[in-house]
Amino acid sequence: MTSTDEHHALALDLGSSSVRAVLGSYRQGAISTEEVFRLHHQAVDDHGTLTWDLERIMDGARRSIVEATERLGRAPDSIGIDTWGVDYGLLDAQGELLRAPRAYRDGRMARWATDLDRAISPEAAWRATGILPQQINTVYQLYADLRQEPDLVDRVDRFLPLPDLVAHLLGAPVEAGRAIASTTGLASPGARHWASQVLEATGIPERWMPPLVDDATVAGMTPEGITIVRPGGHDTACAVHALGLRGHEVRLFISSGSWSLIGAAVPSPILDGAALRAGLTNEVRTDGGIRLLRNLTGFWLLQECQRSWNEPDTGALVEAAGECASLGVVIDPDDELFASPGDMPDKIADWCRLHYKVAPEGPAQTVRLILESLACAHAAYAQGLQDVVGDQLDPAAPIHLVGGGARNSLLPAMTAAACHRRVVVGTPEASALGNILAQLEAADVLDPSARGEVLRRSISSVEVDSSGAIADPGAFDAMRERLDNATAD
């Protein structure tokens, strides 16, 4: 049963390019949402180091609270913060931030990654944490920080993941939610405690690590008296929370944004050899279950192309892509060539010429190529997840797609065709909605068992079949085969 109480929850959904605030109003068993604030921000070059403009981010967070208060005529009942993963802040003994948080696309980790892998092998680190070692991970970042600045050992009092840092600066104590902590590569599988084996091997002081706490719980209060909730911290944890799954349900999902995260919601960590070979990572869900997933480059490719073209109208580009012919080939979105900003259309064209001796002609065909490439990557990773999860996952069950890709008319159809599965297209606002749901649960306004019922009352979803005029499954099978052959060497 759902509560009849009215509750107004403010979700601060912080992305790598914007501060967004979504006000969720819960009445009569349903949630209505309204974006009340948005502020652009970006990583900045600080003398050769890529950092986040935290002052601008915090200004946006505080202005969001003011705007929500003006809309309501009173302060919201609660606030929750979700962000991207792996980035963090370092506090001194007085609780002051030592420097601006560094961005995961900063290049410093490459210099020290081999040393870290010698200190603790990637396989040992994976088994100790359940997290696939990648250079953007927090553990690689902190290791690089300590190698560059050994005096940080004495200067730092506490490390805080980014959403917990923002919550702290708004009034919460120095603690870390388990879901965001699980993404760092520094916590045990399920994030019940910090991984002492990893900390010892890398020289990261255990005293830096804040207490770990459950998500969907009250964290503290703002100076205005607004309850701060830890909603899961990571935007994907919040998005999966908005699927409305029960703890025992196993489902495939794609959270589509700048990154595409494709995974299976499972009850507990999967740490066998097959999961490791498949490159899977075990991140904690808001409800304490596990997101067994792969992280791949997503709409970053399109966003960078739009920046080069100076074309902000995504809808027009997608419409044109749907009307143009397919090039019949796809790229590997995770190729290192595409990881850095700048000249993305040229990079994509060069990659195609190198591997296929053809290249897309103009923006429309480039956008179609990007979408087809993402769909093929989704298919490859979905098959890998099915192989690892096995009988827990019904092979006929649909994939749930949420996030920015839910706004895209082509990507769900292409993904369904490439995966040979139905795709259930949910809300583009999944991260904010999951954040709001966690706040309602923390406030005892909503029983977690009623989450699915509230979602059905609050949002609509569309099911896309695996066959259609825009996306032919056979064509995607052929493109995947051509990609495999082109990259075999």
Automatic annotation (TrEMBL):
Annotated Carbohydrate kinase FGGY C-terminal domain ranges read: 253-440
State if GTP-binding is listed as a keyword. no
Name of a matching Pfam family: FGGY_N
User: Among its keywords, does the record have Iron-sulfur?
Assistant: no
User: Any idea where the Carbohydrate kinase FGGY N-terminal domain is?
Assistant: 9-222
Annotated GO biological process = D-xylose metabolic process; rhamnose catabolic process
- Per its UniProt entry, which superkingdom is the organism in? Bacteria
Q: Which Gene3D superfamilies match?
A: 3.30.420.40
Q: Please provide the record's keywords in A-Z order.
A: ATP-binding, Carbohydrate metabolism, Kinase, Nucleotide-binding, Rhamnose metabolism, Transferase, Xylose metabolism
Q: Name one GO molecular function term.
A: ATP binding
Family note: Belongs to the FGGY kinase family.
Any idea what this protein is called?
Carbohydrate kinase
